[in-house]
Design brief:
Blueprint: H1 4-22, H2 31-36, E1 45-48, H3 55-66, E2 73-78, H4 81-90, E3 98-102, H5 108-114, E4 120-126, H6 131-135, H7 161-167, H8 170-181, H9 186-198, H10 205-215, H11 218-223, H12 230-240, H13 243-257, E5 258-268, H14 271-286, E6 306-307, H15 317-322, E7 330-335
Parallel strand pairs: 1-2, 1-4, 2-3, 4-5
Antiparallel strand pairs: 5-7, 6-7
The structure holds S-adenosylmethionine (SAM).
Residues 26, 28, 50, 52-56, 77-80, 83, 104-105, 126, 128, 130, 153, 246 line the site of S-adenosylmethionine.
Length: 339
């Protein structure tokens, strides 16, 4: 049996979900769980490295307000100018507590320095794509899109997925689909994409999804739990946006920016991202990696992070029932020791 509080939260989330859908907005994932690690105090400085449409940011600022902590400030970053513009409208009532930056999250140290902040008490990265990006057909993220597969989060720079497909060898395509999509049929898929591209058959993201599905043997296609092109789309998107390198640079930069007691939260949506976060946290929590050191701090070097979530935090059934995208979300949290 669920407690009144649980039912209250589930009810709130259902209402939020309906409101977000009506407004065509992105529904933030694991919001209650993120908030449980947010303990605002006067002078708190937060970095929302993936502002998106501002859902998490709004929840943080509401919690700070409800707690009577008025001078919390947030730096909200996103590489997607369209998301930033919408977030700015959503967060108008919190001005001037929010500062907006159109940039990569790997550039967060410079962005903080630009505000004159020496560090941050709370840093959040909610990785992946937003509903805005997925639901906008001309951005070519969705397998149903009747537009060229673009997939750039920042449409002002870089090569689109369509350009990538047209310029890569079959061998390189196979490597991308195998390494970033972890698809065991990478060779067959890359061959099918190359042939279709040479015949001019990939004009839209939907065409691409069809070509990938066609590369699957019928039995495996029928048995697949997800559309056969999900992994290939993930692989191309990650390559187009350089997502794994960005994540590594961000984790290093963010760890260096944490004030004592400051927390770093990362929400990942697939195993490659989650593994990268887990390994990074472990490495930073070990502190001393001097060969032969018997214990973590034997050489006197302090660990940079203390891990607060042994296992990743996953969404509950109430959340996944209203937001399917949340199903694969995994939250990991670490803290800079020494508060
Ligand atoms: C899942 S959405 C974030 C949603 C947000 N938490 C909310 O509540 O609305 C991820 C966002 O991160 C942005 N993003 C992804 N990689 C980024 C990077 N390397 N630098 C900056 N922004 C990035 C995307 O453009 C997208 O808007």
């Amino acid at each position: 049996m669920r407690s009144m509080t649980e039912e209250g939260h589930a009810g709130e989330r259902n209402t939020d979900a309906r409101a977000a859908r009506t407004a065509g907005m992105h529904l933030p994932v694991l919001t209650e769980e993120v908030l449980s690690f947010f303990e605002p105090a006067p002078g708190f400085r937060c970095l929302d490295a993936t502002l998106g449409l501002g859902g998490h940011c709004e929840a943080l600022l509401r919690k700070a307000r409800a707690a009577g902590v008025r001078d919390v400030q947030v730096l909200g970053m996103d590489r997607d100018a369209e998301s930033l513009a919408l977030a700015q409208i959503r967060l108008e009532s919190f001005a001037p507590a929010v500062h907006f930056r159109h940039s990569l999250f790997s550039e967060c140290a410079g962005a903080l320095a630009g505000l004159g902040w020496e560090g941050a008490d709370f840093i959040l990265a909610d990785l992946g794509v937003s509903s805005l990006q997925l639901d906008c057909p001309e951005r070519g993220f969705s397998m149903q899109a009747d537009a060229p597969p673009d997939m750039r989060m920042d449409r002002s720079r870089g090569k689109s997925a369509a350009e990538l497909i047209n310029s890569l060898s079959t061998q390189d395509l196979r490597g991308i689909i195998r390494n970033r999509g972890e698809d065991p049929l990478a060779g067959r898929i890359a061959g099918a994409i190359s042939a279709a591209r040479d015949e001019g058959r990939i004009r839209s993201a939907r065409d691409l999804a069809g070509v990938v599905a066609g590369a699957y043997p019928p039995g495996r296609r029928a048995a697949a739990r997800r559309h056969p092109a999900v992994r290939t789309f993930q692989a191309l998107r990650m390559t187009v946006n350089d997502e794994l390198d960005e994540l590594q640079s961000f984790l290093r930069a963010a760890t260096g920016l944490l004030r004592p007691g400051g927390r770093l939260l990362v929400i990942a949506f697939h195993s490659l991202e989650d593994r990268a976060v887990k390994l990074f946290f472990r490495e930073q929590a070990a502190g001393c990696r001097r060969p032969g050191a018997a214990q973590a701090h034997a050489c006197g070097s302090a660990a940079a992070l203390r891990i607060l979530t042994g296992k990743p935090v996953r969404p509950g059934a109430a959340e996944t029932s209203v937001n399917r995208r949340a199903a694969s979300a995994r939250l990991r949290v670490a803290e800079r020791p020494g508060a």
